Amino acid sequence: MTDFPTTDPRLSFDDRISVDCVVFGFDSDRLDVLLVKDHGRIGTCGLKLPGSPIYENEDIDNAARRVLFELTGLDKVTMRQFKVFGEPDRLSRDPEELSALEEDMGRPVGRMISITYIALIKIDRTVADNLNRENASWVPVSEVGQMVFDHNQILEESLVRMRALLRQSPDLLFALLPKKFTIPQMRKLCEAVFETTYDPGNFYKKVSAMPHVVPLDEKEAGGAHRAARLYRFDRKQYIKIF
Amino acid sequence: MTDFPTTDPRLSFDDRISVDCVVFGFDSDRLDVLLVKDHGRIGTCGLKLPGSPIYENEDIDNAARRVLFELTGLDKVTMRQFKVFGEPDRLSRDPEELSALEEDMGRPVGRMISITYIALIKIDRTVADNLNRENASWVPVSEVGQMVFDHNQILEESLVRMRALLRQSPDLLFALLPKKFTIPQMRKLCEAVFETTYDPGNFYKKVSAMPHVVPLDEKEAGGAHRAARLYRFDRKQYIKIF
User: Fold this and answer.
1) CA-CA-CA-CA torsion sign (B79, B82, B88, B92)
2) What is the CA radius of gyration of chain A?
3) Helix %, strand %, coil % for chain A, to 5?
């Protein structure tokens, strides 16, 4: 396991720079994003993207991995550096939250730079069991409300980037799907990611012709009358095509 | 013209964060990168990637555009945010240069974060005439020597990214070529970018079949016996295909 440093904000490299993580997960029929509670606003409790200062002797990528690890127990996820957000007024556009932050830090803050990361993970039982529920929760992307500062903008732009990533490297789709998945699950994920709808019959025809989507001799648990067949992703077949 | 702030390091947002720019240009038969003199090392004068602190009220993207503008007079170039370099030891791995920098800044520096950008430009007459020759020069990518800190690594990684960008969006190739170019020029550029060689005959056949590479009724100046025909890039045709 990666040896992450203990949390000690006194060790921050520079308190004007942070990492923020957009962690996407797929919850069998909806695309979720991992959010944490924000105690900034007095009297209310909003949600925000998980983030952290970078510690003095810590790599930036590692700071992002640490954020994910502290919330989910996962330590082997690819964290893709996405974009730096640092407009001079990105904090002052949300004056209420800025005052709360300044009160917290005991000094004027002014401007902060956020180095953002994107991660795609499977919300399987391990992840669900290890989730730090005190702080973190999965929220459907379509139901995310107003977040602090420019976090809604960061989420919007990372969705655009995720779509581009998935078009370039369709195998990343399977980073979100369970190891064994049904075609309707795959369709719902594609619909959520690309914000569209697909005809179930056509989608089935297209996907079942993909040599890297391999049918298993198993059906979805639950014992429904028409339980859907399970499939798995075959990377070797995928590499042959792409 | 964009209204860039005047150079005043006292206005830096945070002297532990800078932008550094990898500006690629094509000089009719070689791929160049724009480097500036580094006066850091006492007694010697090396080269480095052009960079700057970010000013207090300046967007990060704008800081990168300002760096390019100050060196070339160009203000409409797309600057692509590439990657943040900020390993804790990225400066201390070059102790000689770090001492020079610390002497310059009058205090210990420790760690700095560099937000890097990639730009692709045409080295045409305007650019050549406006180049701030006091500080800047075009250097063939294949001949870049040892630069300060991790600048060689930044250049290497940005070459990899540029190749990926050009594979995804082949039209970016024409951002580097002159408005009127010959097929051998295009071949040399592809060879330099992808670090390979192409058979001239096959390359010609392939390119002249591309509807977005349009032959002109003009030949290369110089009056050589077998002057090569000039071509132009047709974006409308390109958009039809891609």
Assistant:
1) negative
2) 20
3) 35, 25, 40
- Tokens 């300060």 belong to B148
Rg (CA), chain B: 20
Q: How do strand B113-122 and strand B17-26 relate by DSSP bridges?
A: parallel
Give me the residue from B54, B84, B168 closest to A60, CB to CB.
B84
The closest CB to that of A60, out of B13, B60, B86, belongs to B86
State the architecture of A175-241 in CATH terms: Orthogonal Bundle (1.10)
Determine the 3-state secondary structure of A221 from DSSP: coil
The DSSP output letter for A96 is H
pLDDT score, position A48: 94
B chain contacts of residue A54, beta-carbon cutoff 8 Å: 86
Q: Closest approach of chain B CAs to the CA of A226, in angstroms? A: 42
Q: B81: nearest CA in chain A?
A: A83
Q: Give, as one character, the DSSP assignment of residue A12.
A: B
Task: Count CB atoms within 10 A of the CB of residue A103.
Answer: 11
DSSP state of A6: P
Domain boundaries, chain B: 9-168, 179-241
Q: Which residue has the tokens 């795959």?
A: A186
Query: Rounded to an integer, what distance in angstroms lies between the CA atom of residue A182 and that of residue A231?
Result: 6
A9-168 topology per CATH: Nucleoside Triphosphate Pyrophosphohydrolase (3.90.79)
Domains A9-168 and A175-241 share a fold: no
Residues within 8 A of B (CB atoms), A 29-48 only: none
Nearest-CB residue to A57 (from B57, B88, B168): B88
CA nearest neighbour of B176 among B159, B164, B195, B190: B190
Contacts with A88 from chain B: Cβ below 8 Å: 13, 56-59
SS3 B7: coil
Q: What CATH class has B179-241? A: mainly alpha
**Of B58, B184, B176, B88, the residue nearest A13 (C-alpha):** B88
**In this predicted complex, what is the ipTM?**
0.85
At A168, list the tokens. 């370039």
B128 close contact with A: CB closer than 8 A: no
A11 close to A63: Cβ distance less than 8 angstroms: no
pLDDT score of B13: 82
| B interface test, pick of A13, A54, A56, A154 with most B CB neighbours within 10 Å | A13
Please give the helix or strand (H or E) that residue B206 lies within, else none: helix B200-208
pTM of the full structure: 0.88
pLDDT, tens digit, 9 for 90 and up, residues A50-98: 999 999 889 999 999 999 999 999 999 999 999 999 999 999 998 888 8
Touching check for A83 and chain B: CB below 8 Å? yes
B56: contact with A, CB 8 A cutoff = yes
For residue A202 the two structure tokens come to 């056509």
